[in-house]
Write a structure and sequence with these properties.
This protein is of the alpha/beta class. It contains 7 helices and 5 strands. It has one domain: 5'-nuclease (Rossmann fold), CATH 3.40.50.
Length: about 130
């Protein structure tokens, strides 16, 4: 199984208890994977405590920092795709760097960003 990057829709699905998402997450962890959550994605999904399901979900994840290099790459991706969501762009930039699949509720925007970078991502809809 390839690595996984979660977008905001995936984290919201985890908090809702989406069984399909939790099964995918569990399989990844059982196989030694550690899914990635870009820091901005966590900021979009986190609405204060307790968010018990999301907190439990995050224990198996790695939160990827948003540094200057990633910020500039995300801005460039937005410019190329004429998109405005820098956080979605960080999902794409990170997933491409790791060859991860992206778990998202918005595959159109993710694919448009990847297309603008002349590449493809494997996307799982939640």
């Amino acid at each position: 199984m390839p690595g996984i990057t979660y977008d905001t829709g995936a984290l919201l699905g985890a908090e809702r208890g989406d069984r399909r998402l939790w099964a995918l997450h569990r399989r990844s962890l059982e196989r030694g994977g550690r899914p990635t959550v870009p820091a901005g994605v966590l900021g979009q999904a986190w609405r204060g405590g307790p968010q018990a399901e999301l907190s439990r979900f995050l224990k198996g994840c790695r939160v990827e920092i948003l540094d200057e290099v990633r910020s500039c790459a995300a801005g460039d991706a937005c410019a190329r795709s004429e998109a405005s969501d820098v956080i979605e762009a960080t999902v794409v930039i990170g997933a491409l760097a790791r060859a991860d699949l992206v778990v998202t509720s918005d595959p159109g925007d993710i694919e448009r960003l990847a297309d603008a970078l002349h590449t493809r991502l494997q996307v799982v809809l939640v």
